[in-house]
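Take a look at this chain, tokens included, and explain the fold to me:
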Amino acid sequence: MAHTYLDAKALNGGHRPKLLGDVLDVTLYDVGDGEAILVRRVNRGVFIDGGSGSKTNDNAQDARHLFAKFPSDLKLDAVIASHPHRDHTNFYPCLVRDFPGLLRHGAVYYDNGTIPADNHWATVDREKGAQVRLSRQSVTSRATLGTPWVGTLLRTSKGTEVAYWSVFLALRHGSAWLLFTGDAKKSYEEDLLQALVSLTPRIHILKITHHGSSTGTSPTLVARLNPSIAVASSAKDPGHRLEDDVRTVRLHSAKVYATYETWKEKGRPSPPRRGDLIVRTDGRARRIGGVSGVLFEVETAW
């Protein structure tokens, strides 16, 4: 199982256990109606999606605000454009044009290889300077992240809306497994389930697909992978709202956190609550109070 530190503190006689050694840090940024996720190990990073709003392919204003939050010594090994929607990709032109120092030499840009993805890559490619070494790799079935990451990228072709063919990332850190899902719909998730199960029998942390829309988060996938913690990039507007059915029914056995929360819950401030969300783990299998699991810390801005 996955212990959040609050659970672990209770199991550990009131003492909060500490993360040790190589800590994985996952930040879901509050970017409003969009998504931006940074996965980091010390100064190495993977940037999963990056965008807000749907009016422009180049949202430099919000992108600059986000990149100013990144650690000054961060170097990105990979950028993963899970699918070609502006609210997930319109920070990338600013990244390559105004913040090239964030990219490690030889960084890779992964996308879903569809015609809409070609168009988004063309915008990025046009804006990057000659000194930027960012190569594109389209994921049409399966790919692997390079060192120091242990991650598998997966894609299928389920459904007629190719822009929703999201590249999934199943990421392992020690004994911990995390799954990032873009804006996939239920049938798409189910089509990838066999490939996911071939990698791991369960997922500890699930990034809720499509901002919490009921079109995603397949009950079949949740029941099979049994996540302990689920996190969502959500917002006030109806198109990016974490829906009650997803949170209370499909994910009833998981602890759910979001960048915008509207529900009442004991131990949390009155809604609405919003802000960046950080999950950390050292990936170590351990016993706490006689219960085996992996320790996770969840930090919220509220």
Remarks:
- The chain has a mean pLDDT of 95.
- The two ends are 26 Å apart (CA to CA).
